[in-house]
Amino acid sequence: MGVNERLQSYALSDVSNLKVHGRTTGQRSPLTLFWTGSAVELNAKASELWVEIESDYDLYEPWISILINGVPVSRQMLTAGRYWICVFRGMNENVVKNVRIVKDVQAMNGDPGCSLQIHAVKSDGVFVPVEEKPYKIEFIGDSITSGEGAIGAKAEEDWIPMWFSAIHNYTAMTAEALNAEYRVISQSGWGVLTSWDNNPNANIPDYYEQVCGLVTGDKNAALGAGDKYDFNSWQPDVVVINLGSNDGGAFQTPAWKDPVTGKVYKQRLNEDGTYHEEDLATFENAVTRFLDRLRKNNPEAHLVWAYGMLGFPMMPAIYRAVDAYTKQVGDTKVSVIQLPNTTEETVGARSHPGELSHRKTADALAEYLKGILKF
Amino acid sequence: MGVNERLQSYALSDVSNLKVHGRTTGQRSPLTLFWTGSAVELNAKASELWVEIESDYDLYEPWISILINGVPVSRQMLTAGRYWICVFRGMNENVVKNVRIVKDVQAMNGDPGCSLQIHAVKSDGVFVPVEEKPYKIEFIGDSITSGEGAIGAKAEEDWIPMWFSAIHNYTAMTAEALNAEYRVISQSGWGVLTSWDNNPNANIPDYYEQVCGLVTGDKNAALGAGDKYDFNSWQPDVVVINLGSNDGGAFQTPAWKDPVTGKVYKQRLNEDGTYHEEDLATFENAVTRFLDRLRKNNPEAHLVWAYGMLGFPMMPAIYRAVDAYTKQVGDTKVSVIQLPNTTEETVGARSHPGELSHRKTADALAEYLKGILKF
Amino acid sequence: MGVNERLQSYALSDVSNLKVHGRTTGQRSPLTLFWTGSAVELNAKASELWVEIESDYDLYEPWISILINGVPVSRQMLTAGRYWICVFRGMNENVVKNVRIVKDVQAMNGDPGCSLQIHAVKSDGVFVPVEEKPYKIEFIGDSITSGEGAIGAKAEEDWIPMWFSAIHNYTAMTAEALNAEYRVISQSGWGVLTSWDNNPNANIPDYYEQVCGLVTGDKNAALGAGDKYDFNSWQPDVVVINLGSNDGGAFQTPAWKDPVTGKVYKQRLNEDGTYHEEDLATFENAVTRFLDRLRKNNPEAHLVWAYGMLGFPMMPAIYRAVDAYTKQVGDTKVSVIQLPNTTEETVGARSHPGELSHRKTADALAEYLKGILKF
Amino acid sequence: MGVNERLQSYALSDVSNLKVHGRTTGQRSPLTLFWTGSAVELNAKASELWVEIESDYDLYEPWISILINGVPVSRQMLTAGRYWICVFRGMNENVVKNVRIVKDVQAMNGDPGCSLQIHAVKSDGVFVPVEEKPYKIEFIGDSITSGEGAIGAKAEEDWIPMWFSAIHNYTAMTAEALNAEYRVISQSGWGVLTSWDNNPNANIPDYYEQVCGLVTGDKNAALGAGDKYDFNSWQPDVVVINLGSNDGGAFQTPAWKDPVTGKVYKQRLNEDGTYHEEDLATFENAVTRFLDRLRKNNPEAHLVWAYGMLGFPMMPAIYRAVDAYTKQVGDTKVSVIQLPNTTEETVGARSHPGELSHRKTADALAEYLKGILKF
């Protein structure tokens, strides 16, 4: 093999004109990518570019996608270890390439050992500034927003990182349609109040104010996952909350018993199959409280509750909760939109929305957000 | 990282139920994948699967795509070296997964150092038989058939392996639509008579009877690239020949001078911009001779000349040549089909057909071949 | 011209196997078609078929579409008079043709002279029974449901019957997708509480219990438009209510002054552009009361409020009103669905939903109703 | 009914700014529309417009479509008689409406009684000039070009005018895509040499130099159908010849015996199912001769043989014939394009191309003609 003698290595902390996407700490030696859709972005004027990553996990390995000039050209599993990955080689050194290296899998609450870090890059060229985008969007959600099932055959049933995609995902598609920068906070199975199986700890709001508080274990703690997130550093124009699917599921699944306290949690159905009013009210209170918390931390953002990709049984409750919030606070910069439901034609792996379902949602959501952003 | 203690390693030559796609030698220790679309296919009943590859090159690195149950889930550059790649992990060990590891880049005439080999697999399960498909198709072509530009942004201009795709390719799509096994013989820039720049050595027919004779250098010779290909081992039902685009281009480009003999080659235009009749006749003779060679080696196959994805100025000449062949030989199992032209909407990188253009061609070609195969 | 000597004329009242669609009176000598989508349907085993219609109007002429075997083949303006129209001729007399002659324009509140009647048919064959469909749907709406703008160039601005379509209409498309019989109650500009311009008389609920009470004038009275509608004669499985767009518009338009009483009506905006709470409550009460009335008359039907094809500012109020209704009555067979918004790509004439927008709504609505109808 | 007192009637010969489409005689009192796609076009600044037509036939009645501002809004059978048809009413009298009244059915060789004439218009406004289009295209063809089966259910089998469409037709679609004026010469079942059933009289070339020579009977003769056509009056930029499908069919159908001379005609198959060489040569000579005739009458036009919508077995012969023509005459402004084949998804009534097949052909053909017209 020919060797490119002109390659020079740079610690990531020394790379000027580096753009980091996604909530993370200030640390750059190395940089940790926590959330799906997190990324490093570079405009490389070079013939060759490598990136040094470090991957670890007990169960669920990280995956990345690489985009060159906006087009995904590579997607790979990152087996454990610290090593160099070649991003491109043999290109015209006088032409600037926009490069995004994107974490393709969600933060993993279920695997304390899971982490993805970037140490360094090497190249034979220079990095020029990445243009700022005019809008910022934060997406908050569950497996849908994590892109679970957005890649893979319909027959797939294993719960593994391979079937997650940050790219075939309405978040990325919506942001691209609006020319917006975006961040994602999401966790499969979680809700506003409880998880799909009634676990009250598996709720997003409790972790919203941390960098990535829902990951577990000492290593993640040491990486700063539990640090208070600095909202001033990145104020979104819009926060999209795509939660409720798992809260709805909790009514249909068995109770959850806290292994420590022995306390049992269950969102109840009435005998006629309708939702128990008290439990529904508890959910609605959780929505209202979360809106409060979102507003506190994002004083200027439009808050858009976007729901419906896997059915929309909780919609009346969401509307009531948003109503209640609006009345209590007098805040009118909040609204609800129903997203296109997933059909047999648009479903993907693991009975989750496939790429086509994500596309339809992105079309509808981008159109709606254009009105809000006054395009 | 947790380690799977149950993984066992197998030399590829010891793997029963291995299916190899694409022309290659009988050698399995290791197996060499020469052509784009070449692949190993396995039905793995296992929770985890790795493959040991060896990649080398002076200029143009190999890429692979991995398909699980027919869906591409990974695509990666193979930097030089011998190493293990994880295909999947953490899956249900009782379920059979169909796996294809596909060479995503053409054989590289321009890089004698380029090679891709597979040494071994390791797994914690077993390999069950891969079902035989009812049809076999051989595709012969140039950059179009190599999938040049089928991936990447429209702005891309570098001639590098990254922009080649065996997957976003009419060959793979047509074969899938027909439930056919397929092989590809292709080289960017080459033609029936000459290359796009009038080089008479860059013609596919001269190498058709070898395993992969158009690759160069001692290493490839040692790997058996120049060996006589055993046509009896794999007789296609249809041979699709998508050649002529570069032969047409040769009329528009400067002459080529043989560096050894000093002889100059040029397909000439008349003053009014039409093709010089003599040179056109030379092209037609090359087509006719190639059909003879194809028939000799594929006595039962339907020969389908399929042309037009980047314009169709050579179509009258191709029809004349096929006519001449039919008359000389009395062979009626040969026909011509015009493929959908690439438009602004369907173009990909490097001004070549994009994924959508390949899709349109696959739709038209599969429909046509259904008639021939008596679906 | 050759004359078909075998044609025989039949008063409509004498035609057995006649299927009448749409609310109308029991009168068949002649039959009056009031609403858009109203129709006569026949299975004609004949070579030729004519229909005798009578059309009248002061301002807005009726139009019809003719469907043969489910495909629209003719659409024509019906100028005033009583005359025969040829439906088909020259066909195989041994083959049964399904024929629908459909009123393509809404009932016209603004034109007391407008009427469309069918007197007779003539044919050289026989009429065989029309198969009953397994489902019945009633659609209630405004200009959207009347198909205003579903045909015609985007530039069209005249308010004329030509731009109305019962065929390029989500009602017909949804019914076809579900293999359902359907009826339509609709009027451009009208709402649940008021019209788009604050006229409280222009509300659908007040006329819901009559055959077609919203048309005016002595002639229509004599035709029985104001008769009490016999709900027992046709009980829908689903009632789709697509109202609210004009009620929302009323907040944005000037007050309406009753010419008789001098009383002024206006749905008010607050200074910050939000809806005045009292007026919103008045709207919500109107929704709740209408649901009461719908339930009274359709004891078994699912009530589906479907809204959003021209934006969805009233959605929170609609959800509140449906909630209130459900709580008051304990009725859970009522739900809300947001329909796909109309975009630049899907808009039709007069800034109304075009055919493509109707198609998208039909896709979403049919999918949703499949769940309700337990497909 | 209210009567518009301001309507004034004008003999068509007195209407300035009238645009007539399609080959016809100079006669305007009345104007005869012979071919499918023939039309009158007006830019009417008026609130109301009527047209007086006269229709006659023994077997096959004429149909028209009416387009307002380019959009088809009405389609109707024209039963025999002379009468007024209302085109529009109630529109803004200050706005100009572009109106096309289009003959939707081919000239009828099989019905000497068939004719469609336009006598007069009446309106309350004025007619302003119709803008000239930059290109002119002549289409020559058979049932495909006549739009047979482009409207109607797939199950339809009757050969009746109802299933013909000049609008859902690649001719109209291609012309619209290129902003071109167009004319159509076509007849179902006819070919270059013979009809589908070997009748040598049913060939288009013999009638190409007359206004509409293929219609029959004294009435049509008196209307000038057999007059020499004045090619100078309208010179196309492109002539598209879509013939060959019926010539191909003749090889598969029984012989035709001339009832007068007793002579028998048959395009023969060889025993192996291939075309008999002599008979194929006869077809090719007919193609070559027709190209000669087309060139004589259209000295500057590009001649484009466009074939393949219902399979393309004659393509080799067409290429040979075009080759032969080019060599004999030295004419290079002639080319061949294969059109997209009709599939199960795109087929219409009577096993003919449906609207979607016409759309696909129009897309491909317009793209090709753009290159020729140097867009």
UniProtKB/TrEMBL annotation, chains A, B, C, D:
Hydrolase as a keyword? yes
GO molecular-function terms, A-Z: carboxylic ester hydrolase activity
Q: Does the keyword Hydrolase apply?
A: yes
Q: Which keywords does this Swiss-Prot/TrEMBL entry list? A: Hydrolase
Q: Where is the SGNH hydrolase-type esterase domain?
A: 139-328
Note the PANTHER family from the entry.
Answer: ESTERASE, SGNH HYDROLASE-TYPE, GDSL-LIKE LIPASE/ACYLHYDROLASE DOMAIN PROTEIN (AFU_ORTHOLOGUE AFUA_2G00620)
| Record protein name field | GDSL-like lipase/acylhydrolase family protein
**Organism, per UniProt?**
Paenibacillus pabuli
